[in-house]
Write a structure and sequence with these properties.
Number of helices: 6
Structural class: alpha/beta
Number of domains: 1
Helix content: 25-40%
Radius of gyration: 17 Å
CATH class: Alpha Beta
CATH superfamily: Nucleoside phosphorylase domain
Oligomer: single chain
Distance between the termini: 23 Å
Number of strands: 11
Shape: globular
Largest sheet: 11 strands, mixed
Strand content: 15-25%
Bound molecules: hypoxanthine
Order of helices and strands: EEEEHEEEHEEHEHEHH
CATH topology: Rossmann fold
Length: about 250
């Protein structure tokens, strides 16, 4: 098994990595079951990179049905040690408007009923991993350095609130999340981050703001078309950032 320099998990609006060359496709079945879809491994900026679409390449898997354990375990089995999670989010904090890229440093988990540990099955050792800093500090530093080198604007820090979905939030829920200290809201940040920690993977989130969260912008309803359009614009800066990250 060859090492993978970086595994990237793409979120809503990010179903493939453009410029991935000489692609091989893997779709192992893990001890945790099936993945969201194929893992595409290829060369990007001269390095071996893996890409997996979190919701499946046709966006068919809702946030609460994603097999987060299988996705991460498969990436690890294929040779990944570092995982960059791309998460499309809503913005709550003033600095986190549509099209902003952010590298959060904290999270709050509002999800429920998801398998959120490797030690779910009877007979597995119970794990109580440290999670005070939910994202790997060294990977965050490398991402922030890469953004600086590539001249890509990236907000350093912020608190990601993970909600259950698949519906969007009420205004009151977002008001509560703001009070709690959340800057961003998404549906897939957890249990992915905790499982990565249990697996011993380096893991960090690059959040792409697709919309103002409920009640934070104008009164218009949030549409998926608006979210995707903003993600498309914001991800223009992604390739240079990734190239700098892989060169570093
Ligand atoms: N809420 C939750 N998840 C999201 C949002 C949102 O407003 N936008 C994109 N993903």
């Amino acid at each position: 098994m060859q090492d993978i320099a970086l595994a990237i998990i793409g979120g809503t609006g990010l179903y493939a990595l453009a410029d991935l060359q000489d692609v091989e496709t893997h779709q192992p079945v893990t001890r945790y079951g099936a993945l969201s879809g194929p893992v595409r491994i290829g060369t990007f900026a001269g390095r071996r990179v893996a890409f997996l679409a979190r919701h499946g390449e046709g966006h068919s898997v809702p946030p609460h049905r994603i097999n987060y354990r299988a996705n991460l375990a498969a990436l690890q089995a294929l040779g990944a040690r570092r995982v960059l999670a791309l998460n499309t989010v809503g913005g709550i904090g003033d600095a986190f408007g549509p099209r902003v890229l952010a590298c959060p440093d904290q999270l709050i988990d509002y999800t429920w009923g998801r398998i959120s540990t490797l030690c779910e099955e009877e007979g597995t050792d119970v794990l109580h991993v440290d999670f005070g800093e939910p994202y790997t500090a060294t990977l965050r530093v490398d991402i922030l350095d890469a953004a600086r080198k590539a001249g890509v604007a990236l907000v350093d820090g912020g608190c990601y609130g993970a909600t259950q979905g698949p519906r969007l939030e009420t205004r009151a829920e977002i008001t509560r999340m703001r009070r709690d200290g959340c800057d961003l809201v998404g549906m897939t940040g957890m249990p992915e981050a905790a499982l990565a920690r249990e697996l011993g993977l380096d893991y960090a989130c690059l959040a792409i703001v697709g919309n103002w969260a409920a009640g934070c912008g104008d009164d218009a309803a949030i549409t998926i078309a608006e979210v995707i359009a903003n993600v498309d614009v914001a991800t223009g800066g992604l390739s240079p950032l990734l190239e700098a990250l892989l060169a570093g």
